[in-house]
Amino acid sequence: MVDKPIIEVRFHGRGGQGAKIASRILGHSANLAGLYGQDFALFGAERRGAPVVSFTRIGREPIDRRGEIDRPDLVVVLDGSLLREAPGQVYRGVDDATPLFVNADPQRFLTTALPAANYRAIDMQQLALESIGRGFVSAIAAAVAAKQVAAVNFAHLSAAMRQELGEFGLAPEVIEKNIAAARLAYESTPVATLPSAPARESENPTSWQAVPYLGGAQFAGPTIRHRGSAALRQTGSWRSERPVIELGKCKRCFLCYLYCPEAAMQLDGDNFPHVDYDHCKGCMICYEECPTDAISRRLEA
User: Fold this and answer.
1) Which of 16, 47, 100, 159 has the fewest other C-beta atoms within 10 Å?
2) Residue 179's domain spans which residues?
3) Is the same domain home to 121 and 250?
4) CATH of the domain at 31
5) Based on the structure, what is the number of domains in the chain?
6) Rounded to two decimals, what is the model's pTM?
């Protein structure tokens, strides 16, 4: 690891995965290690499943830099689909020397046709499912990043997790499960070499599905070019879980139809609900509201 006066880390995820919490845990860990830490998030669409980005700066001296991190020393991606759906965000300021840790199965992760970066695949999802029982990967992502900062050890990390996850409202037993998952990630994550010089500014195509940086020179902000564009934006690609309806148990109470925030529940001629998977984000509100347990949750393949 390069001894840098300031280490700049960028987390990319989807709303609800915990990118913001990961950056807070990392910044808090740095404080406990006697370093200066700064963390903040950019929400963009501010919807569950939408691409979001969060930033952490760690330094030995007070940090006077403000604003987004355009040229990161380290990138952690909590959802591998963002590599292709939101390349303009993920690869901004990244080159072949930039460590880029991706939540993906190392045995199945392919970098073919992806932009240059120093890729490392960590199956954060599987670690979360085994230790926590849910695909909540914020603590794991924070552990992956913390392993790259020599002054931050696991004691700092676990103390930060207890406070940050506690403030988030998680029960003590759930917090301990997150810490156990983070320990596995911390112990198994390799230490990467951080670039000694700023990454070159790279030009990457921006997906029409992605929300661009709001403060960058290239974009003034999200632009809606015509009416009725919501139907064209297939938010189903944001989903990590999907609701599955067992019509034999359905009493046609319409609660799933009424509560769906994306109008992704459609009624057929007999008033039975069906999921529009092109636009379902996997928020699972329908699952929570169904009084007859006719809706189950399934992980996306």
Assistant:
1) 159
2) 6-188
3) no
4) 3.40.920.10
5) 2
6) 0.74
**Reported confidence tier of residue 10, pLDDT bands at 50, 70, 90:** very high
Task: Dump the DSSP string for the chain.
Answer: ----SEEEEEEEEETTS-HHHHHHHHHHHHHHTT-EEEEEEE-TT-STTSEEEEEEEEESS-----S--SS-SEEEES-TTHHHHSHHHHTTT--TTSEEEEES-TTT---TTPPS-EEEEE-HHHHHHHHTSS---HHHHHHHHHTT-TT--HHHHHHHHHHHHHHHT--HHHHHHHHHHHHHHHHHSPPPPPPSSPPPP---PPPTTSPPPSSSSS-SS----STTGGGTS-GGGG-SEEEEE-GGG-----HHHHH-TT--EEE-TTS-EEE-TTT-----HHHHH-TT--EEEEE--
pLDDT band at 14 (very low <50, low <70, confident <90, very high): confident
Asked if residue 73 belongs to a domain, the reply is yes
The answer to whether residue 205 is domain-embedded is: no
pLDDT digits over 135-188, tens only?
A: 889 999 999 999 999 999 999 999 999 999 999 889 999 999 999 999 999 999
Q: What pLDDT was estimated at residue 203?
A: 45
